[in-house]
Target: Endonuclease/exonuclease/phosphatase
Amino acid sequence: MNTTLKVTSWNVEWLDKLFDNIDGKKQKRIDAIKKEILDINADVLCILEGLKAEDKMLDFLSKCFRK
Model:
């Protein structure tokens, strides 16, 4: 039985600013952040400097983990 718990914190600097007037460059960064979150594959992920509004953060994360 594996008893390892992977806890990760990541300061996603200026994540909130990426969602103002999304252009191609910002979308590339958003997509890279989504990929990195999935690649990290943490059991617990603490995001620092995330989206300021809870509903926006939940929406962003639900899109990251949508199958």
